[in-house]
What we know:
Strand content of chain B: 15-25%
Oligomer: heterodimer
Number of strands of chain A: 0
Shape of chain A: globular
Strand order of the largest sheet of chain B: 2-11-10-5-6-7
Amino acid sequence: xxxxxxxxxxxxxxxxxxxxxxxxxxxxxxxxxxxxxxxxxxxxxxxxxxxxxxxxxxxxxxxxxxxxxxxxxxxxxxxxxxxxxxxxxxxxxxxxxxxxxxxxxxxxxxxxxxxxxxxxxxxxxxxxxxxxxxxxxxxxxxxxxxxxxxxxxxxxxxxxxxxxxxxxxxxxxxxxxxxx
Amino acid sequence: xxxxxxxxxxxxxxxxxxxxxxxxxxxxxxxxxxxxxxxxxxxxxxxxxxxxxxxxxxxxxxxxxxxxxxxxxxxxxxxxxxxxxxxxxxxxxxxxxxxxxxxxxxxxxxxxxxxxxxxxxxxxxxxxxxxxxxxxxxxxxxxxxxxxxxxxxxxxxxxxxxxxxxxxxxxxxxxxxxxxxxxxxxxxxxxxxxxxxxxxxxxxxxxxxx
Lengths: 180, 210
C-alpha cells in the first residue's frame, strides 16, 4: 500500500476525532469493496470465508498502519467510567451485539454481516484493543458496524471497550490461541 | 388527515420487547405472474401526494424526487447511529433488493437522515454501502430537511441518553415507517420497520406492474 495512505491512517489514529474519511483509505487497501465481496458470495460457507478474509486483511492493514502502537494498551478506565461505558453499551450497542456481547439478537441475525460472538475469547483477541478502538471510531468498512467518533468521545469509546472486556468468557486452561 | 397521526412514533427503546413478525396474517396469493392481488402493507388511500423535494445524496449530488418518476421509490427517515429501527430497515431493504433481482434495478431506495449533524455525507456513504451499494443517503440544510419531514409527517425528537452526562450521547426518536411512492410520485403504501422483506418486495412488484 502507498506510504501516504499508511501515514494518513497513522495520523488519524492519534487524532481520530478530527480527521474523517481515513476509513475509506483503509477500506480501499483492505481488499477493496468489502460489501460487494460479502454480499455477492452465495452460500453461508462462501460468505463466512469472504468475511474471514476481509477481517484478516483489515487486521493486516491496521497492524501496518498502527505499527508499534498496535499492541499498546489503552488508557486506564476507573470504576465510575467503566459504569458509564456499560450504559453506553446497553443503549447504543446491545441491539446488535446483545447485552452479553454474544450477538444472536433478532437484529443481529438480519444484518448483512453478522456481528458474531464478541465474548468468545478467540474473537476478542483477534484484534488488539487499539485496533478495536480504531474500528469503533471509524467503523468496519462494508459492514453495519459504523464508526462512532461522531457520537461518542474517545474517553467513552475506551470505556465501552473496557466494559466489553468484562464480557469475554474465560479461556479454558491450555486452549489459549496465541496469534499475531 | 395528517399522515403523522397515522404513523406510530417508533421508540428505539421499545424494540427489545417486540417480536419480529409480519404485519399481516396470510397474505393474498399472487397471480400467475407472481404479482400479489393486494398490497401487503398499509395502503394510504387518502394520503397527500408525495411532495417533491430536492436534497443532496451521500456523493454530494443533488437528488430531486421529481426526476425519479417512472419507477417506485422507498423512503425512510433515520440516522446512522440508530440502534434499532434503522439497521433493521436497511437490512430488510437489502433483502428486498435481492428478492427483486433484475426487476429491482429501477427501484430507488432512499434513506433521509434525521441527524444531519452527525450523518455527514461520508458517514452516510460508508454506512449505506454495507447494506446496498445503490442505496441513497440524503441530507440537506436544516431548513430543507424540515420541509421534507413536514411534507411526509415525519416526527423526530432528540433524546439525550443522560441529560447530566453528554458523553453518553443522544439518540433520536423518529417515525420508523418505510413509505412506498409509486411511479407517478404518489405516496401509496407504508410498512412497519418490522415488516417482512417478502411483503415489501411483493408490494414493489405490484407497483412495478402498474
